[in-house]
Design goal:
111 residues
């Protein structure tokens, strides 16, 4: 059941990352170059909802897996950066597959 939550987090993180890129590279240019502010309103609202789902999914995974705060903070921080959730997906996939103990750079419990 816990790995199912991790899979959901990966999917939500992907959608959140795509929505951030659409907001930055499609909606904002439409607003400022084409005079269409509605694009940012729509994309921004969708991105905001996906970010909230991302935070909820992350907290569910953190509790289910007993993640240390450093790991959860790194994944959370990835949601603030363009392309960040795609980088974090590599970490999430590794953790989903059961990374060997002590190889997590975000854990204070290494070793």
């Amino acid at each position: 059941m816990a790995n199912n939550k991790l899979t959901i987090l990966r999917r939500v993180a992907f959608l959140e990352g795509v929505s951030l890129l659409v907001l930055f590279f499609v909606a904002m240019p439409l607003k400022y170059l084409a005079g269409l502010p509605i694009a940012v309103l729509i994309c921004g609202s969708i991105h905001g909802a996906l970010f909230i789902l991302f935070c909820i999914a992350l907290e569910r995974v953190r509790r289910a897996h007993g993640w240390p705060l450093g790991r959860a903070a790194a994944v959370f921080g990835s949601g603030w950066l363009p392309f960040g959730t795609f980088v974090a997906d590599r970490w999430l996939r590794r953790w989903e597959q059961g990374e060997p103990k002590g190889s997590d750079p975000f854990s204070s419990r290494n070793g």
